[in-house]
Amino acid sequence: MTTNEKISALRAAAKDAGGSGVLLMTSDPHSSEYLPAHYNSLTWFSGFTGENSTLVVTMTGSALWCDGRFYVQADRQLAGTEIECMHAGSAGVPTVAEYLTAHFKEGQTLLLDGSCVPAAVAEQYAAALQKSGAALASRDVVNPLWERLGDRPALPDTPCRLLTPAQTGATAADRIALVRGELQKAGATALAVTGLDCVAWLTNLRANDLPCTPLAVACALVTMDRCTLFLAPGRLSGADTATLAASGVTVEDYTALTAAVRALPAGEVFLVDPKTTNYDLACALKEHRTVAGADPILALKGVKNAVELQNIRECHIRDGVAVCRFQMDLEQALAEGKVLHETDIAAMLQRRRAEMPGYFEDSFGTIAAYGPNAAMMHYQAGEGSDSVIQPRGLLLVDNGGQYDCGTTDITRTYPVGPLTDNERRYYTWTLQCHIDMARAVFLDYCTGGALDSFARGPLWSHKINYRCGTGHGVGFISSVHEGPQRLGPNNDTVFRPGMTVTDEPGVYETDEVGIRIENELECVEAGENQYGRWLRFEPLTLVPIATGPVLVDELSREQMDWLNAYHARVYEMLSPRMTEPERAWLKEKTAPIHR
Asked: Is residue 487 a contact partner of residue 503, using CB atoms and an 8 Å limit?
């Protein structure tokens, strides 16, 4: 079926169910960023493969909203379809809520699958519809239609395992106790845990249900005297089930959460986060007393403990060696005149990571983008576009690994031949942004929103910006994107020692070039004085940053000193694990730069 035929079928299904339109989101019952294929209906119906998007189909039209990372990609993937591409956040583009108010009339109803839409979003859309006398109803017409028209994938059922306290620094019992303490502070007695990364943190549970994200499709229920893990039968070994039982965790069927909530005594007080709780579950929770507030696990897991941090540092040494060996392979292949496509890069990287102890998969699909393709922040080479890497310009490679000791995320932009003046300027300004963020010193009340501006100054001085945040938290053997801390204009999370975050400013000039330089950083203490407690960042990523494209005279003395010190650290940490030829190569790549 064509996209237009699928949209037409959706329209008809909505009408048959008494609706006047239907809404789909890239979401699942757990508000996951990366979805099990079972829930990826928006992609099947629209053909758009990006993240964080919303599709609305009315009786007369359809529209899809995407954020700034995917503008170019969405325009290309939706071309030739009836779907109007909405660049969310751009001037003159209505929000989803504004669109609903304008396109639905009195007496009409918008249908959605309430199990796959966060309660806060559903309530916002219900309010927007109410302005026109329309209504919202949780009625799933999408998935039955998908099952009838296509081959909808089953729910994942990969083997589950438990991480050990030697990896995580805590048992499930330790973490349940922390959660109960936070519930008491919030005046609550119970928490339904639906975020897959939150369930993983709470119970040490891991699996391979999502691409590149070692999590299990599961949920949990914590009260003051019980903790229940909801997981499909047969997925845990007897030994792991016994380990959980020793921490006070019982295991029930995955589908039993809502029934378990309704069976609890009326006196239970649920802490409910409408941003992360799906609409259908939130309605069930509200049959009890509720207290509004963020899931406390988000903040707890955002601060890594000493054992996790020790493991993360080891993880980055292994990953650094692998990425350096990949760069050597890349340089050798180009020097020999081999024809390399963008799709060759992921295989080259994965081969080197597979040599590292503890590696088991990538942490996301490798973004290998040559030249203008890199202007699309989340570009994926494939059948539609797979450029040959020419002996000129820049190659952007964004990738990461999942290891038994941590999760990594790194971007490097490699010069593969002569550069234009613009490419050198953009690269230098991006590097300045990266360094200014990495060397920031700040008081312990600073939020991710405040810190984000540290990175943008060098680009802003040239009236250039990037349409995304500067960085995101990274999970521990978990999702590569993790909150609540981010470096972004609207993030209100106060940074604390033990938080990890990426530092990845960039330049994205459509049809010209894309440049990004990314390290992971650890937030650490920087001392106290009469003004308060100071914090700073230490780089976790250990891979040389290309200095060939840098316009050295544009760097400040402090920026140059930081880069030289960083490279000295890279050599110190990686060289003991390298061969003599590799050490010679690394010595050259980490050589100090001077004016």
From this structure: yes
| Residues whose CB falls within 8 Å of the CB of residue 174, separated by 6 or more in sequence, listed in order | none
Question: CA 31 → CA 25, 39, 114, 362, distances in Å?
Answer: 10, 11, 12, 21
| Cα–Cα nearest to 363, from 478, 530, 274 | 478
Nearest residue to 118 (alpha-carbon basis) of 291, 275, 271: 275
Distance, CA of 354 to CA of 574 (rounded, Å): 17
The long-range contacts involving 349-356, CB below 8 angstroms and separated by at least 24 positions, are 349/322, 349/323, 349/397, 349/399, 352/322, 352/323, 352/325, 352/326, 353/319, 353/322, 353/401, 355/322, 355/325, 356/318, 356/319, 356/321, 356/322, 356/401, 356/403
Report the DSSP beta bridge partners of residue 213. Answer: 210
Residue linked to tokens 């059948």: 383
Q: Judge contact between 518 and 500, C-beta under 8 A.
A: no
Residue-wise pLDDT for 79-108, tens only, equals: 999 999 999 999 999 999 999 999 999 999
For 207-234, the pLDDT digits (tens) are: 999 989 999 999 999 999 999 999 999 9
> Token digits for 502?
């990426």
Q: What is the 3-state secondary structure (H, E, C) of 255-299?
A: HHHHHHHHHCCCCCEEEECCCCCEHHHHHHHCCCEEEECCCHHHH
Percent of the chain whose pLDDT exceeds 70: 100
CA 152/CA 253 separation, integer angstroms: 22
pLDDT at 259 over 80: yes
Nearest to 502 by CA among 400, 393, 582: 400
Which stretches of 416-496 are assigned E, i.e. beta strand?
Answer: 441-443, 471-473, 482-487
What pLDDT is recorded for position 493?
97
Give the span between the Cα atoms of 138 and 146, in whole angstroms: 17
Tokens 């003004």 identify what position?
A: 531
Q: Are 85 and 74 in contact (CB under 8 A)?
A: yes
- Residue (of 157, 260, 171, 164) closest to 216 by Cα position: 157
Cα(first)–Cα(last) distance of the chain, in Å? 61
Cα–Cα distances in Å, from 516 out to 268, 412, 463? 49, 7, 17
Is residue 246 scored above 90 in pLDDT?
yes
Q: Kindly state the tokens that stand for 80.
A: 């030739």
pLDDT digits (tens, 9 = 90+) for 24-53: 999 999 988 888 999 999 999 999 998 899
Q: Return d(Cα 247, Cα 329) in angstroms, integer.
A: 47
Q: What is the CA radius of gyration of the chain?
A: 25
| Cα separation, 76 vs 384, whole angstroms | 10
Question: How many Å apart are CA 120 and CA 355, to the nearest integer?
Answer: 45
Of the listed ranges 313-322, 378-387, 461-470, 522-531, the least confidently predicted one is 378-387
Query: What gap in Å lies between CA 18 and CA 139, rounded to an integer?
Result: 10
Mean pLDDT calculated for residue range 312-330: 98
| Cα(84)–Cα(9) distance, integer angstroms | 17
pLDDT bin (cut points 50, 70, 90) of residue 383 is low
Instruction: State the Cα–Cα distance between residues 378 and 387, nearest whole angstrom.
Output: 15
